[in-house]
Amino acid sequence: MTSKARNKPGAPAASVPASKHEIRPGQSIELLKELHILTRDGQLNQDSRRKLKQVYHLFQFIEPLLREVLAEHGQVRLVDHGAGKSYLGFILYDLFFKSQAPGAAGHIYGVETRDELVTRSRELAQRLGFAPGMSFLNASVAESMQSDALPERLDIVTALHACDTATDDAIRFGLARGAQHMVLVPCCQAEVAAHLRAGKGAAIQRNPMAELWRHPLHTREFGSQLTNVLRCLQLESHGYQVSVTELVGWEHSMKNELIVATRKPGVARRRAGQRLEEMLATVGLNDMRPRFFTPLLDGTAGDADEAVADLKGAAQHG
Ligand SMILES: C[S@@+](CC[C@H](N)C(=O)[O-])C[C@H]1O[C@@H](n2cnc3c(N)ncnc32)[C@H](O)[C@@H]1O
Q: CA dist 308 to 145, 188, 292, Å?
């Protein structure tokens, strides 16, 4: 194919052998094929080259956290909630855990509700020789709160596009297990928008800012942004330092907001908790205080242990 034909719109993307600059030394070719980053015959095309760049882009955010935990604790215990096909877990294992002494780097746990994906991940881990350092739990995030299969303390919690409120559950999980870092790429969350919708009439009467969510499309969009703002304040109120960036070009979804939270002893928490409470009151969402629970501010609401107990109760009954 000439270079002209190759660049023609609609022409099939040309495959070229993967160069050594793109595939890192020791990287599992079988895994890259499984992730459809390499074609069956080990080639890269334009699409897959972009995918590989995205994988490295995400890894560059997580690698320093892994190194920090490893240096501090000698092992990294990471749980990936809403793991799906466990792409993230496999990539992290391949690029980081595998190169450490066998079994020394720690463990990756994938939590996923769809049993066929869990079975598939278990099989792939066996096939790649990753099984000693990877386990997969067929459970919801809420159920995993009381699972004996997960260690009492976890260092890193990740949740990439975990559906709807699963990100909120992942935050609860991280808080309950004392996670040092949380890496979250939220999916759409419909719960806040539903509460905004329900209280819209009253909100418009008393607050001109309610124009921000008057139209149905805006209710959804504002609800989504508000959710992430509340999540950030919640994390800050529990002593985490939070950074929010964009996961550029991540093609899985239009939702590209990357929230990285790191627990910092001594971080001022009270102000964030107060801010969160004020925001909830301003937008008429006081009934959502249990969802975005903060450490006890006033002795009446937002107690973390209480909210975690609620979550455990919900999991038992659901
Ligand atoms: C959009 S996929 C993302 C998968 C993966 N994290 C990724 O980025 O490729 C969301 C996954 O979360 C799972 N899921 C949804 N709600 C969940 C919950 N409450 N607990 C655990 N998994 C959940 C779904 O079954 C689905 O596989």
A: 9, 23, 11
